[in-house]
Amino acid sequence: MFGWDAGDTGSGSGWWDEPPARPGKRGAKRRPAAVREGPAAEDDEPDEDEAPETLTVPDVAARMSALLSREFPEPFWLVGETSGLERTLRSRGGHWYFSLVDNEGSGAQRASLNAIMWKRTVDGLFGKRGRLARSGFEPGDGVVWRVLVKPDFYAPHGKLNFVIQDVDPSFTLGSLDRERREVLARLEREGAHEWNKAVALADVPLRIGVITSQGSAAHHDVMEGLTNSGLGFEVLFCDARMQGADTTRTVRGAIASLERLAPDVIIVARGGGSRLDLSWFDKEDVARAIASCSVPVLTGIGHEIDTSVADIVAHSSFKTPTGAAEFLVERVSNVALELEGSFERILHLTGVGLDEAQARLLDVCRRTRQAASIWDGRERAVLTDVSTRLRAAARQLVDGEQRRVDRFASRLVTGRHVDALGEHDRRLASIAERLGHVATATLAKHEQRVSLDAERVRLLDPSTVLERGYAYVKRGGEVVKDAVAVRAGQDLTIVFRDGDIDVKAKRGRRAPEPTLWDELEEPPSEESPVGDA
After folding, report:
1. pTM exceeding the 0.85 threshold for the entire prediction
2. Helix 247-260 and helix 284-291, axial crossing angle in degrees, nearest 10
3. Do 58 and 155 touch, CB atoms closer than 8 A?
């Protein structure tokens, strides 16, 4: 049972009491009877008993008060939807002035009653120590509630008011729970509670849409969490009401506006509040806007106990706006850590690969040098053997021909034979001369080929580069290839052909791009210095 304080009605002492009749006024003056026309009139004399009664304004006010007292002798429970209460809550008077409208009607034809809750009743119900202070019930525009009222006619303004003496919070909260269950049942039958969860969330969500009330604590918490992370988030903010009758319209509009901008994710955030404040996120229109959104929607609605319908249909829900922001920061940070680890592994594997390639190259150079040395010795031995055999064969051929000539000469002593013998001698001399030239040219050709191969092997030897006056730089056992890899203060080692020296880098800089003039210049001689370490 909900009691009510009769003192709130001002019974017996307030301006709403029936005023005393004014003596000599009632019935003192009467208007002449109306003239009746037509057959209904039986005589021309006015009937004073049937004439309309003439009343004063106080008379009407008194009768109105008396009528209300007869028709509503006791306070009664009234169900209606609040309208205009938000404006009153922002005033400093302490009294609540608003309207109770038909919660089942629509449009301009909705019935409306003027309602008043005096400051004494407000403090007794909703003050810091009020009976409903901890009930979770907090009225606002658009809330349907059950109130104990007493009608009152205020004569100075000619207004009929209903003074609220008590509130039944269980009626409103029970209605909200029933409506919530019905909405959730309809969404689950359609499978709408899984629609937004099926939308894939980006691995690196950096383009964030935020829906909340601008300047609110929820707005501050979300922005602070994203900004302080040091990550490159891009925030698309859209202002919306987070409680009251405008919540459904503004939240739906904000979701549609952000969806057209194609963010990676949308956060719907609201701070804590009463059960009635958060009931707007149980509305079917808000739930369907979230469920059908093509972008993943995260809810961060500040209530630790209840779960709203918006939380159920969202991609993911969090207890606070800060929790939603922390989820995105952690997701992006984990991907950043994975990328940094992959980069370090790539650097390590690249260094190992370069070291292995350098070792293989040095081994190839060593084997090439050994093979060239062996091949050069073999070629020289082959050439020497060929030259020796050619010389021996030529000598044998000349000696054989000489012996033949001598035999013919001993048998032929005539002049004709002597002439023929001389001709043969000349032919033999010419043949011997040609054989000598051929042997010498062949030997020179092979010697030149051997020299070219030896020079090629020598040029491929890395030690030859050092012999020409060049050097290379090492850092911790690794060869430094780029100037930008050197930082000031690092210890370096410069390797020359005859040894190495340790130096400390003053500063690093990139070598200038070669010009056409540099390409035309001759390489430095062996006497030129290597450079300032």
Report:
1. no
2. 10
3. yes
**Do 205 and 332 form a contact (C-beta atoms < 8 A)?**
yes
228 Cβ contact partners less than 8 Å away, ≥ 6 residues apart = none
- The per-residue pLDDT for range 175-197, each reduced to its tens digit, is 677 777 788 888 888 888 899 99
DSSP secondary structure of 493-512: EEEETTEEEEEE-S---PPP
Q: Measured between alpha carbons, how far apart are the two ends of the chain, in Å?
A: 97
CB-based burial of residue 287 (10 Å sphere; 0-12 exposed, 13-18 middle, 19+ buried)? buried
- The DSSP bridge pattern shows strands 234-239 and 297-301 to be unpaired
Nearest alpha-carbon partner for 194 in 313, 102, 97, 324: 313
Integer Cα distance of 533 and 530 in angstroms? 9
Helix (H) or strand (E) holding 96: strand 96-101
Sign of CA dihedral 205, 209, 211, 213: positive
Please name every residue paired with 520 in a beta bridge, in sequence order, or none if there are none: none
HSE value, Cβ hemisphere, 13 Å, CA-based, for 401: 16
Q: Give the 3-state secondary structure of residue 383.
A: helix
Q: What percent of the chain has pLDDT over 90?
A: 11
State how far the Cα of 164 lies from the Cα of 115, in Å rounded to an integer. Answer: 7
Question: What gap in Å lies between CA 332 and CA 176, rounded to an integer?
Answer: 38
Distance CA 147, CA 172 (A): 10
Whole-number Å distance between alpha carbons of 65 and 59: 10
Task: Give me the mean pLDDT over the 4-8 stretch.
Answer: 34
**Residues 305, 309, 312, 316: is their CA dihedral positive or negative?**
negative
Q: Which of helix, strand or coil describes residue 222?
A: helix
Which tens digits make up the pLDDT trace of 501-521? 988 888 655 555 655 445 444
How many angstroms separate the CA atoms of 120 and 124, rounded? 6
- 149 or 133, which is more confident? 149
